[in-house]
Amino acid sequence: MKVGLIAGNGTFPLEVAESISQKNKEVFIVALKGAASRDLERYPHIWIRMGQIGRAIQALKENNCEELILIGGVEKPNVWLLKPDSGALKLFFKLIMLPVKGDASILKALLNFLEIDNKFKVVGAEKYISHLLMSEGLLAGEKIDEQTQIDIDIAIANCKKIGSKDIGQACVVVDREVIASEDDSGTDKMLKDIISKELKFNKKGVLVKLAKPIQDRRVDLPVIGMQTMHLVNEIGLCGIAIENRSSFISDKERVIKYASDNNIFIYGLSNENL
Fold this sequence. Notes:
Blueprint: E1 2-7, H1 12-22, E2 27-32, E3 45-48, H2 53-62, E4 65-71, H3 86-96, H4 103-117, E5 121-122, H5 126-129, E6 137-140, H6 146-164, E7 170-174, E8 177-181, H7 187-196, E9 206-209, E10 223-224, H8 226-235, E11 239-243, E12 248-249, H9 252-261, E13 265-269
Parallel strand pairs: 1-2, 1-4, 2-3, 4-5, 9-11, 10-12, 11-13
Antiparallel strand pairs: 6-13, 7-8, 7-9
Helix pairs in contact: 2-3, 7-8
């Protein structure tokens, strides 16, 4: 049995593929053009554009993939430029019928399409990379002070609010003020927007990122990596708080070293914090 990997952007898909291979399982990769890394080409693969869902499913079946993992970010496409194949059209008709069209709802429809209509077993990446899940407590940086803890608490409440509405997973709070909330453009876009407004802080404020309460844990769990770390440092935030056992750290060793070198804390939120 092979494990199929539908890969978006970032280094995370490669880490997942490497971990699957290290467990003596074969992996076949469907790499999204304009998103996935060329480094994935060391494994059996095909490249597809966003509208070629039918071709992806055919290739996964031809390569005897039973388990399927969806991993890596994807920018929202211009639907008028997709040129969907027959498989994509079948999925689009299902999406059109959704009463709510947030990310969690769309991903749920996609999972049903893959599992019910096409008989794949979709599994979470944590099955193969549990070592990259965030642990509870302080992973890097110094002890959190009282003011920062207040910012974290405010950010948690805001993340729960936007998550329950299927809007986003993350926000930034500085001096008890929510200065940015994530939408479907993603965390890094939110951080880049802060930079574009020339907002700069001197080691205060936090980025908090939580899984949406309504989302399926098999897809789109929060991830931080080096790109996020660079942006947080450029803004001047003092740290990041993410959910223990429900968030991943991509390129973990480099992230921890970068955080320590730049005096940025990384904190794993416990159930008590939430």
